[in-house]
Amino acid sequence: MLEIFEKLARPAVLKLKPYDSARSQIGADSDLILLDANENPISAADIMTNRKTNLNRYPDPRAGALLPIFSRLYGVDAASILVTLGSDQGIDLLCRVFCREGVDKILATPPTFGCYKISAELQGCETIAVPLLEDGFQLDVKTIIEKINTENPKIVFLCSPNSPSGNVMKTEDIEAVIKAAADKAIIIVDEAYAEFVDQPSWAKRLDEFPHMAVMRTMSKYYGLAGARCGVMLGHPDLIDLLRRAIAPYPIPSTTIDAVKEALNPKAIAILDQKNRILIEERKRLEELLLQSDEVLKVYPSETNFILFETKNRDAFYNKLKKSGIIVRKYSADNTIRMSVGLKEQNDLLLMALGVLDAPQSQDREATAARKSKETEIVACVNLDQQGHNISTGIGFFDHMLQQLSKHGGFALTLTCTGDLETGDHHTVEDCAIVIGQALAEALGDKRGINRYGSGEIKLAMDEALVHGAVDLSGRAVCSFKGEFKHAYIDSDGTNFATEMVPHFFKTLSDYLGAAIHVDILKGENDHHMVEGCFKAVAKSLGQAIALTGGDELASTKGVFDRAAS
Ligand SMILES: *Cc1c(COP(=O)(O)O)cnc(C)c1O
Fold it and tell me: How far is the CA of 108 from the centre of ligand 1 (A)?
């Protein structure tokens, strides 16, 4: 045990051995006959669901199934991870392991997360409050260090990004506090909202500062607040101490299963896209809230919530409540905190405040999934966003789909795991199906779009020239003119069959309900020509899905005839 933990932990905890269930030595998935834990071989859950739920069994005490997942996610060894029943449990464990009733103290920096103080109080301990600096909610480093030296808090809780203020604490400030506390206190960096910020986690520096630990949670970015799952990342000795105080089976098997399922990389790729849009929504709200007479100041946030000052907190709260919207009144005078909702929810809030007269246009976003014998694909498109995250297993095809997203001006996230041993046929066809379905759903009733688009693409100084045209008529037609020189393109170690190119566009047209025309006007190099096809269709599609600013259903005559002629 490191000296710092020997010095700071409660003597009672240092003497304690953790509750040792017979199960902790046995793998969870073993075929052994388990008669060791007074469990019932029958489960009411199985009777009701008519399947084997395994809920008659106690869960794995260490949530072992999640350790490799968190180890990869946070880049730390399994021995440095403690899975807790929400971060709230982690905070509670820290107080119980380190703080003696009536003797020890913790330090927190209000306005900040309320649980630090509550957990300390429950343990009979005082909280030394060092308020954040008034201008910008940054740490008052000088006073914190002074208090560490004079009042000996056992634990210092730093929250970055902080709730309720939403700002990130300066790296140099956190570092100064950590350094000043070496041999004196445990520093906890609560990173509940860290995924919303593009900054390295303090977990990367665990080796450098063994008296520091980091808390993460599944509740915010991952949207799993109901699952109750938090993660403590710290020195293995600290994890060992906390484990002595944790309940025997802290994480329900339903939680373990739900988190494992949700952290599937396919789901995360799409979650990332949706959270990017949530951040755009936050920026829109920050701007529009200021247009309300009742909002005096909006504090800059790097999270999924916003803190702002109103003229009159109660009047503001009640006005929204009448419209069926609940926000959080904060303790400081006239401040309100709100989570960023879906676009249509935020619109309703802005309408209740009189900032908007009517809802703004709906999100043009859709997710489509397809699972066949050969492939499993999830795709998500957003017609009003940019960016792509594509992984099909075929490098060249990824590159082509990136062109489709980039030149089509829409966001595309697509993950495909498939059987590439039987060739790329299934992957290419199934991706076209899923993209077509997602685009069609995102377009909805197609109100207010151009509907038509056409474009010419030149590649490699005129070497290849391809013309494309798209009509989102609802009628599936595909005309593909042009010949490739070879049956395969050798690229990135993959052999991509050129015959899959017309097949891709035919399938896309079927599932999107669009007329797609591709004309290879000239070209010698297959790679250039294929790329030209994807870019020309993308450019046309981008025009066709673009909003005209009007609200009419796209007319059925006109532009397309000209474009295609
Ligand atoms: C929400 C929140 C947590 C609690 O997370 P759970 O894992 O749901 O218990 C911890 N810290 C801060 C700052 C939070 O806002």
Answer: 15
